Amino acid sequence: KHLVKYIAFAWTLFSVFSCQTNHSETVSEPSESNYQEPHRPQYHFSPKANWMNDPNGMVYFDGEYHLFYQYYPDSTVWGPMHWGHAISTDLVHWEQLPVALEPDELGWIFSGSAVLDAENTSGLGTKDNPPLVAIYTYHDPVGADAGRDDFQTQGIAFSLDKGRTWEKYKGNPVLDNPGIQDFRDPKVSKMQVSGQDKWIMSLAVKDKISFYSSDDLLQWEYESDFNPPWAAYGGVWECPDLFPLTTPDGQEKWVLLVSINPGGPNGGSATQYVIGDFDGQTFSTDQNEIQWLDYGADNYAGVTWSNIPTSDGRKLFIGWMSNWLYANVVPTDVWRSATTLPRELSLWGKSPEWHLASRPVKELQKLRKSSHDISGDTISLEEELVELELSPVEEDFRLVFHNSEGEQVILAKEDDTLLLDRTQSGLVDFNERFPARHQAPLGELTVQNLRIYLDRSSIEVFINDGELVMTDLLFPEHRYTQVELKGFADENRLHYLQSIW
Ligand code: FRU
Questions:
Q1: Ligand 1 contact via 53 beta carbon (within 6 Å)
Q2: Is 50 exceeded by the pLDDT of residue 97?
Q3: Residues 409, 300 within the same domain
Q4: Is the CB of 54 under 6 A from ligand 1?
Q5: What is the pLDDT of residue 246?
Q6: Do 427 and 439 fall within a single domain?
Q7: Residues 6 or more apart from 19 whose CB is under 8 A from it?
Q8: What is the pLDDT of residues 260-305, one digit of tens each?
Q9: Annotated catalytic sites, by residue?
Q10: How many whole angstroms from 110 Cα to the centroid of ligand 1?
Q11: CA-to-CA dists, residue 111 to 154, 173, 279, angstroms
Q12: Given a cut of 70, is residue 28 above it in pLDDT?
């Protein structure tokens, strides 16, 4: 994958220096984007201009949800990484702020996390003004080009003004590389170990997760590795996240998210998860089969908002809505990529088999502009931004969004599989892997209800309040004007949604 990224970056440099510049590839940030460009998401966050990938450093502080993200402010393809920054007070409306972290002599700023160091354990703030601390990966492009193995290290930066300005820690890096090429994406949280608070870091190390611990965020000690034989290994492991959730019968369980690229169930990038126990040093599990967070092709590198502080105890997640198979070439100008909808994570199932559900956060109901009861087989869509709530009544059901230009996207249950077919959804030939039929195994799951969000360039399908999820990008050239329904109850709900921009 990094080869693909480097080729994309080299191509940008080539186009800039050879004066064959395609203007849209090199625009710098317009002071105001009207967010009306073709395919521009209307209720998902996307930067005003240029490239984004993974969400980073999500932390809730003083009434604001912070969202940082992998950002390249000089181009619409991947390149030297910065941390872009946006904030929201409701997880629905986003305000883009200036870039938070820029590359320095130690390297580009890859993915990572952020916490409030409330007790000032790091000494980077004061007890009265505790620091927000960002922990990220330095990627040294010179070391990488020279063929070294130790070009990824972990660094930290801190802010004493609600994330508005950041200072890099003078003693960086705080975690040196032991000679392993892929050594990145630190996710830090706080937990009690033997009655004492500890900082725990989960780190993606090639194809395992390593755990480190610290008292002060500055000195880190290696604890253990996790890489069970049955997990998905077709690609490099990235962007881990470790957090506790309570089961429906009241037990505390630990969830470990591990993104992998390539090797996803429908090709390219995807996120697997493991449910088990963490004792402060070691993660253990009885799980012995892969579980996937999302069976669509376009939810990658997602992680949760920090547990310190947390707004109201909910575990909130957001992903990058793309896939490294084609992320650099999706047909958008001005900007490239967006986040998924924010989702609340919870556990479902029966002991000892637990699964992760991700449902759209309740705040998204604010988007509803008008709501309609719908029945019949053919529903006209008067508007482009749609949320549908449907209850299937037949064993196999089918739903098709389409328009008179012949563009369509199909969602169908066929036997024990949920199928999302975007082969004729609009612009599809920018990459041979894009026009595809994505499948999710339903196993024992009985589909009771579906919630579907359609934005200008995406569809997100939530079965049974998020027990199974599919997220796919779509690039229709014309909006879908009708939806055909087969196998659903007579009463369903349609909501037209408003733009957040
Ligand atoms: C995941 C990823 C991370 C890395 C970042 C670089 O998409 O490859 O592992 O930190 O993107 O932009």
A1: yes
A2: yes
A3: no
A4: yes
A5: 96
A6: yes
A7: none
A8: 999 999 999 999 999 999 999 999 999 999 999 999 999 999 999 9
A9: 54
A10: 6
A11: 10, 15, 25
A12: no
Within a 13 Å sphere around the CA of 171, how many CA atoms are in the beta-carbon half? 8
ipTM score = 0.99
Whether residue 115 sits in one domain with residue 60: yes
For the chain, helix, strand, coil in percent to 5 are 5, 45, 45
Residue closest via CA to ligand 1's atom 6 equals 110
Question: Which residue has the CA at smallest separation from atom 8 of ligand 1?
Answer: 238
User: Taking the mean position of all CA atoms in its chain, how far away is CA 91?
Assistant: 14
Statement: residue 16 has pLDDT above 60: no
Count CB atoms within 10 A of the CB of residue 457: 26
| Residue among 108, 110, 303 to mutate when testing ligand 1 (max atoms within 8 A of CB) | 110
Q: How far from the centroid of its chain's Cα atoms is residue 10's Cα?
A: 26
Q: Are residue 57 and residue 106 in the same domain, yes or no? A: yes
Structure tokens at 34: 């009207």
Pocket of ligand 1 contains residue 182 by CB under 6 Å: no
Please work out whether the CB of residue 238 comes within 6 Å of at least one atom of ligand 1: yes
Task: State the residue range of the domain holding 468.
Answer: 362-497
pTM of structure: 0.94
Domain boundary among 336, 359, 382: 359
**pLDDT tens sequence across 411-434:** 999 989 999 999 999 999 999 999
Let me know whether 273 and 313 are in one domain.
yes
In whole angstroms, give the CA distance from residue 200 to residue 192: 10
* 66 and 123 co-located in one domain: yes
Same-domain status, 320 and 391:
no
Boundary (domain end) residue, out of 338, 359, 380: 359
If one counts the domains in the chain, the total is: 2
For ligand 1, atom 9, the nearest C-alpha belongs to 238
Statement to judge: residues 103 and 233 lie in one domain? yes
In ligand 1, the atom with minimum distance to the C-alpha of 185 is 10
**Mean pLDDT for all residues in the chain:** 94
Whether 114 contacts 122, CB under 8 Å: no
